[in-house]
Task: structure prediction
Amino acid sequence: MLRATLKSLLGRKLRLVLSGLAVVLGVMFVAGAFVVTDTLGRSFDQVFATAYATTDVGIKAKPKIAVSEMEGEQVDTPLPASVIDEVEKVDGVRSATGMVTEDGARVIGSDGKVVQSYGPPRLGNNWIGEDGQVQLREGRGPAKDDEIAVNAAVAKAAGIKVGDRVGVLTLQPKKTFTLVGVWGYPGDKDSIGGAQEVAFTTPVAQRLMLGQPGEYSMINVKVDQGQTPAGVRDRIAARLGSDYEVKTGQQLADDSAAGMKEVLSFFNKILLGFAGVALFVGVFLILNTFSIIVAQRTRELALMRALGASRRQVIGSVLLEAVVIGLIAAAVGLAAGIGVGAGLGYLFTQLADGLALAPIGVPLAAVLSSLIVGVVVTVVAAVLPALRASRIAPVAAMQDVATPDRPLTKVSVAGAIVGAAGATLLGIGLYGSGGLWLILGGVLVSFVGVALLTPLISRPVVSALGRLFSWSLPGRLGRLNSGRNPRRTAITAAALMVGIALVTGVTVVMNSAKTSLAAQAEDTVKAEIVIGGDQNGPRPPTFDDSVLAAARKVSGVRAAAGIWNDQAQVDGKLTYVNATDDLAKLSDAYGGPALATLRPDQVAVSTQEMADHGWQVGTALTVQLARGDQHRYTIASTYDEDALPGSYLLPAAATKDFGITQPVIGFVRLTDGTTVAQVLPQMKALVADSPEVSATDRTTYIQQQVGTFDTVITMVQVLLALAILIAVLGVVNTLALSVLERTRELGLLRAVGLGRGQTMRMVTVEAVVISVFGALLGVVVGAGLGAAVVRALNGEGIDQLVLPWGGMALYLVLAALVGVLAAVLPSIRAARINVLQAIAAE
Amino acid sequence: MIGTKALEPVAARAEEVWKVYGTGDARVVALRGVSASFGRGRFTAIMGPSGSGKSTLMHCLAGLDTVSRGTVHIGGTEVSGLNDKALTRLRRDRVGFIFQQFNLLPTLTAAENIRLPLDIAGRKPDQEWWDTVIKTVGLADRLSHRPSQLSGGQQQRVACARALMGRPDVIFADEPTGNLDSKSGAEVLSFLRSSVREHGQTIVMVTHDPVAASYTDRVIFLADGEVVQELDRPTPETVLEAMNTREVLV
Ligand SMILES: Nc1ncnc2c1ncn2[C@@H]1O[C@H](COP(=O)(O)OP(=O)(O)OP(=O)(O)O)[C@@H](O)[C@H]1O
Ligand SMILES: [Mg+2]
Result:
C-alpha cells in the first residue's frame, strides 16, 4: 500500500505541486514571521550592546511613571549633580560622568522640514568628548552655548555641514545653533541603530532636554581595574538607596532590548495572525485538491478495494499522501520563509535607517511551527476526502468513473448549523462580554458555515453570473462547466471569499469609523482653524506655545487655546491626560460649555469619567505627571465627553511637568463675519518656526486625522494579499485538475472544430465565473460582517454605516482579472491537448 | 466551396500515404503507401484485422493526424500541410465525426450537442435541414435530454445527427456501432445509409462487423497498413467470404 501510494504520488507531480503550494505559502509566512522577529531581536541586542558599550554601571533616578515600550515613551527623571559626588566616593569607581541623553531633539533640515524618524529616537545629549564609541569625523565638540555637534546620520538626513546654522526643536521651541562637529562610530557607522543624535554643551543640554539646570539623565560609571561592574553596582545601590536604579551596562542593554522585543513579539503575533488566515484559506485549497484527486482516482482506489485493501488502508493511503505533501511543503515553506524573513528584515533596516541587521538565524520555533503547521494543516484538510475515498465501493472499479453528484441537503444543513453557531459566537463577541477572540472565532466559524452553504448558493448564482458570458459558445460551455460540480466550484470560490470578506469587512468598519468620527468632529469642533501636524513616529508633532498668545492678538480671532497631551497616573492609575493653557478660551474656541479658567490646582473632568469613578465636583485627585512631584487637583468643572478633547483637562501650570512640554494641537475660533481665508495666512506665518505643524482649516485637519484609517485599510489589504493569492492558486488548481479530468471532452470539442482560442476562452470563462462568484460572496459576507461590527460599535461613537461601494465593485473587477490570470496556464494546457490522444484516452 | 464540391467527384482521397510511429525499436509502420479515393455520395467501409491501420488511415484522412509521407485531400483541399488553425476550420466546416463512444458533451442537451459544430462556427442551422435530420434520426422527443439520460443507441444517433447537421464533405465514423446491440446498431446504420441515399452524404466507416459493412456501397480491406482488397456492393456473405479467403480473423 505504501509503495503504491508513493508511486501514485510521484506519478502526478502536478498534483503534488499544486496542493503543496498553498501549504508552502502559509508556512513561508509563519517561518518568515519567526525569522524576522528573531533576526531583528538580535539586531537590537547588538544596537543596545553598542549603545551601552562604554557604560560599566549606569545610574538613573526612578521614573515618576513607569511606561513600557508598548505603552509609549517613558520620561526620565533627572538626577541632581550632587549624586555624582556621592557615587565618586564609592569604592571601585574610577569615574562618574553626568550624562544628558533624552529623546526629542528634532533637527530642522536644510529644506526647513524636521528630520523624521519612524522609530529610532532623536536624542539630545551633552557633549562629554570622544570615547570608544563617539569619534569625531569633522570639526570639534560644542564649546559655546550656541554650538552643537551631530552624528553623521543627522548630518546626512538633514543635509547640513559644519559651519551651518541649524534649528533644533527641544523641550523649548526652535533654537538656532552653529554646527561645529560631526561624529561617527567605530566600523564607519553613521549611527547606533538609526538613532539621530545632537550634542549640546552640558548646561544647554540640561536646559533644553531636561528643563532642569544642573541635573542629568544618567550617571555613567567606569569601574577601576580589577573591579566587576556587578560588585560596584551593588555598592553604589547600597549607598544611594531605593530612589535610584543602578544597573550594569549589560543590564541596561538587556532591558532596552527586552522592551524592543516586546514590541517585536506583538509584531510577530500580527504576522502570525495573517499567516493563520492564509493557512485557513489553504485548507480549502487542499481539501478541494484531495477531493478532486480522490474522484479521479475512484477506479484506482476501487481496484485496490477489490484486490482486498481495507477501508482503513484506503484512508491511510490518502492521509499518507497528505503527510508526505505536508512535510515536503513545510520544508520548502521553511526555506522560503527564511528568505522572506531576511527580506522583511532588510526592509525594516531601510525604514529604520542605519540599523545593522544581525546575521539571519533560524530559530527552533520557526522549524517546529513550520513542520507542525505544514503537516497538521494538510492532514486536517485531507481527512474528509480520505473518508470519502474509503467509501468507494469495489464495484466502482468496473463501472464508469462518473460518480453521480450527491445531493447537497446534508452539507447545506450542516452549513446552516455551523453558520448559525458562527453568528451566535460573533453576536456574543460583539454585544456580550465577549472580546476579540470570540469575535475572531465567530468570524472563522461563520466562514466555514458560509463555505458549506456555498454549493447550494452556487447553482443559481453561478448560472446567473455565467449568463453574462453566454453570448458566445465558449462562454456558454465555460458557464456550464463551472456549474458542473457545485462542491468544487463552491470550495474554490469560498477560499477566495475569506480574503475578500476580511478586506471588505475591515474596509466597512474603517470607512464607517472614518466618516462617523469626521462628521462628529465637524459637528462638535467650532474652531475654524486648527494648528497641528501628522504624527508618524513615536513622538507627536508640537509647536511653540507662544503661538497661542500671538494668535489671540490677531484681529478676527475670537478665541484660541492649545492642548498638551501625556500619560499620567491619576489616583495611581495610568491614563491619558490633557492640559490647556486656558480652559475658558478652549471652551470658547472648541465650542464646549462655558467654563471658567482653571486655577493651578484645579482640573476639569468629563462627566463619563466622573461617573465611572464616582467622583464629584470638589473631589480631589492625586496626579503624578512625567516630571515633578505628585500634585493634588480639585475637580472644578465637568463637561460632556465629546464637548471638549479628552477626559481630563489640567491647568496651564501643569504643562511644565508634561513629558512633552509643548502643545500638540491648537484651536482657533474666529469672530462672526471673519472668514478663514482672512486669518489663515497670519496663522501660517505664526507657526513658521514650528515646522512640525501647520495651520489648516478645520475640514482639512479632520481629514488628515482620519487619514490613519486609510493606512490601516492598506496594511490589511497588503497582509491579506497572501490569503487572496492562495485562493487564486486554488482557482488555478481547480481548473488545472478539471482540464485534466475533461481531457476526452476537450479532445472531442477540438475534433468537431473548436479552435484553440475558443478552447482557451471556454476555460477562462469558467475561471472568471468561479472567481467573480468568490468575490461576490466575499463582498456580501464582508459587508455583512462589517455592518455587524459597526452596529456593535454604535455605542463607541461609530454611528454611520458606510459601505465602500467603489471598493466592492473594484474587488469584483479585480476578481474577474484574477480569473483571467488564473486561467492562463490551465487554458494553455487545454488548448494544447492532443486531439487523438484525448479521444483514445481511457 | 459549393462550386468545388460540384466539380469534384471525390470527397476524400489518400495518395501513397505512409504513417510511421516512433523510432528505433519502437518504430511502427502503421500505413505503407495507402492510396484510396472516397467518391462523393458514397458509403465506404474500411475493414481489416486489429492493428491493420484502419483508425490511423481515418485520422490521417480527417486531418486529426499528420501523414509521414504522401498526400491527403478533402474535397479540393490538400490536408497535409495545413496548420492547426486551418485544420480546426476544416474539421469544423467540412468533416463530420462519429466515434465509437464518448461522442457527446455531458453538459449539453441533445439538441445543443447536435448544433455544436454550427455554434462553434457561429452559424445558424437551416431550419428545413434541421427538421429533416431530426426526423430521420427519430429524436424529436429527446432533444432536451442530456446524454446521461439517453441510451447508448440514442447517443450514437445524436452523434450521427451532429455529424450530418453541418453537411460536411465527408463523415468519418470509427466503429460507430461497436458498442451497440444489433438492433440499435441497425438503426444507426440504416440512418447512415439513408443519409447517403437521400441526401448524397459521403461517409467513411471503420467496422469489424460484416453485417455493418453490408450497409455500405464498397468495402476496402486493410492488412498490415496496406490496401489488400476492395469489394463493391457488399453483402454480409461476400464480406465474410472475403475475410475468410484472407484467412484473417477480424
Ligand atoms: N500513437 C501511436 N504510437 C505508436 N503506435 C501506434 C500509435 N497509434 C497506432 N499505433 C500502431 O499503429 C498500428 C495501427 O493502429 P490502428 O489504431 O490504426 O489499428 P486499427 O486497425 O484501428 O486496429 P483496431 O481494429 O484494433 O482499432 C498498430 O500497430 C498500432 O500499434
Ligand atoms: Mg481502431
